[in-house]
Amino acid sequence: MESEAIRVLVVDDHPMWRDAVARDLGEDGIDVVGTAGDGAKALRIAPAARPTLAVVDLHLPDMGGVELTAGLVALPEPPRVLVLSASGAGDDVLAAVKAGATGYLVKSAGREELLDAVRRVHAGEAVYTPGLAGLVLGEYRRLSSAERDPGPEAPALTRRETEVLRLVAKGLAYKQIAQRLAISHRTVQNHVQNTLTKLHLHNRVELVRYAIDRGLDG
C-alpha cells in the first residue's frame, strides 16, 4: 500500500472539525474522496469511494467509532483506519485497536502531527499519540502472557527480518529502524512486507502482537 496514492475518508459528526481535517489533508496534496457525519453514511459510500485510509471519530450519532472501524476493515477493499478522537482513555484506545485501527491520535494533535500520522498509517505503521503506544504494547504483553500458546512452528525469517521485527516490536518507526541498522527506509518497508507475507499477517499491529507472543520485544 505504500506506493498507492492516499485516498482518505473523513468521518466526524462535527461539520467544522470534519471540514477542517479535510481541508488540511487536501492542502497537503492528499486526496479526500469522501466525508461523512455518521457511521451508516461512511459504510454506504466507502465501497464506491474506495478510500485507502479512513480518519474516524469515536463518538458518532448512530454507532460507535469502534463498530465503524470493524465494519470498514471488514470491507472487500478495507482501508486502514486512523482514529482521531477527543478521548485518550485507555479503554477507548484498546477497543479501537482491537477492532482493527492501525493508529490513534487525540484531537489535541497539531496539523503536522495529523499529516504525518496519515502518511505513516497509510504505509502500514502503527501510530499513536505519545503515551498511548506503551498502553497498547502493555496490553498485548498481558494478553500474550495469559494466552501463550506455542502454536505451529513459525516460518523461517532471515537474520535481517528478525532484526527488523525486534525493532518494530519495540515501537520504533521505520525511519528509526533504518538509521539503527544503516539501511534505507524502503529496505525496512520491504523487510516488513516480506515478514507479513511469510507470517500471513495483515498489518504492523498484528506483527507487534506476533513478536511479543514470541518474546522478541525484550
From TrEMBL:
<dbReference type="GO" id="GO:0000160">
    <property type="term" value="P:phosphorelay signal transduction system"/>
</dbReference>
<dbReference type="GO" id="GO:0003677">
    <property type="term" value="F:DNA binding"/>
</dbReference>
<feature type="modified residue" description="4-aspartylphosphate">
    <location>
        <position position="57"/>
    </location>
</feature>
<dbReference type="InterPro" id="IPR039420">
    <property type="entry name" value="WalR-like"/>
</dbReference>
<dbReference type="Pfam" id="PF00196">
    <property type="entry name" value="GerE"/>
</dbReference>
<dbReference type="InterPro" id="IPR016032">
    <property type="entry name" value="Sig_transdc_resp-reg_C-effctor"/>
</dbReference>
<dbReference type="InterPro" id="IPR000792">
    <property type="entry name" value="Tscrpt_reg_LuxR_C"/>
</dbReference>
<protein>
    <submittedName>
        <fullName>DNA-binding NarL/FixJ family response regulator</fullName>
    </submittedName>
</protein>
<dbReference type="Pfam" id="PF00072">
    <property type="entry name" value="Response_reg"/>
</dbReference>
<dbReference type="GO" id="GO:0006355">
    <property type="term" value="P:regulation of DNA-templated transcription"/>
</dbReference>
<keyword id="KW-0597">Phosphoprotein</keyword>
<dbReference type="InterPro" id="IPR011006">
    <property type="entry name" value="CheY-like_superfamily"/>
</dbReference>
<keyword id="KW-0238">DNA-binding</keyword>
<feature type="domain" description="HTH luxR-type">
    <location>
        <begin position="150"/>
        <end position="215"/>
    </location>
</feature>
<dbReference type="InterPro" id="IPR058245">
    <property type="entry name" value="NreC/VraR/RcsB-like_REC"/>
</dbReference>
<dbReference type="InterPro" id="IPR001789">
    <property type="entry name" value="Sig_transdc_resp-reg_receiver"/>
</dbReference>
<feature type="domain" description="Response regulatory">
    <location>
        <begin position="7"/>
        <end position="122"/>
    </location>
</feature>
